[in-house]
């Protein structure tokens, strides 16, 4: 994951704590997407759940 982040943020330095914060943010997004799918009686999480 780190190489992809560095590629995306080309020209910027990335602090080591950034990755922990990013992991937390992604986990929150995934939790919300999962909840939305369940609320719509689906087991499949789709792009629209984001």
Tell me what the structure shows.
- By secondary structure, the protein is mostly helical.
- It has one domain (15-49).
- It contains 2 helices and no strands.
- It has helices at residues 2-8, 16-39.
- The longest helix is centred in the middle third of the chain and has 24 residues, at 16-39.
- The chain is elongated, with a radius of gyration of 14 Å.
- The mean pLDDT is 95.
What class would the helix/strand composition place it in?
mainly alpha
Rg (C-alpha, Å): 14 Å
Order of helices and strands: HH
* Uncertain residue ranges: none
Walk me through the topology.
Blueprint (H helix, E strand, L loop, with lengths): L1 H7 L7 H24 L11
Keywords:
mainly alpha; 0% strand; 50 residues; elongated; 2 helices
Short account of what is shown:
The chain is mainly α.
